[in-house]
Amino acid sequence: MPPVSHATSEPRGEGRWAVRFETHVPFAYEAVWPALTTADGLYGWWAAADVLERRLGGAVALRRPDTGAAVSGKVTAWDVERVVEYTVGGEGRIRFHLDAVGTDSTVVRFLNERGGSDEERLDGLAAWHERFELLEAALAGHPVDWAARTGARWSQLRASYASFSRT
Fold first, then answer.
1. 13, 49, 99, 155: which could form a disulfide with 39 (CB 3.0–4.6 Å)?
2. Measured CA angle at 52 (ends 54, 152), to 5 deg
3. Domain ranges of the chain
4. Stated pTM of the model
């Protein structure tokens, strides 16, 4: 698989920013959609879904198995097999928009709008970059082993995003 491209970020007012990814994954949207919208799918790359009401306005509660960090909120957009958006405390608005490319490939357009410092922006860039790598691995049949996770890859990505910010 080709590596995940670096994300972009932009300010959205004082203490607010948006992170954007547009990544092409070599899997049909029928495989990608459940990875973004089901408890089993999310667990393979992002978080345990302690609550996931799969509908517009539904409740969502996500917990990172490796750190125990938890957030909760609502499903704020739901267009089956095309768009899902979670708005959760501490993480802001998290939106995935899928576009099929032929029958066996999908473009994922991602947006995360939230508040925070510039350091938190860099943390978010690195975290989402790593999550997209984990998503591709999960789709390829290699879900994350939460017990074996270290912060090494995140640290590499964080340093890379910090170096881009200085140029």
1. 49
2. 120
3. 8-166
4. 0.93
Length of the chain in residues, anyone? 167
CATH number of 8-166: 3.30.530.20
Do the beta carbons of residue 135 and residue 45 sit within 8 Å?
A: yes
**Which SS3 state, helix, strand or coil, does residue 33 take?**
helix
Looking at every residue in the chain, the average pLDDT score rounds to 93
Residue 107: closest CA among 26, 7, 37, 51: 26
Strands in the chain per DSSP E:
8-11, 16-25, 48-52, 59-63, 70-79, 83-88, 92-100, 106-115
Give the Cβ contact number of residue 125 at 10 Å.
26
The answer to whether the CB of 15 falls within 8 A of the CB of 113 is no
Is there a contact between 138 and 144 (Cβ–Cβ < 8 Å)? yes
Cα angle 122, 9, 17 (rounded to 5 degrees) comes to 80
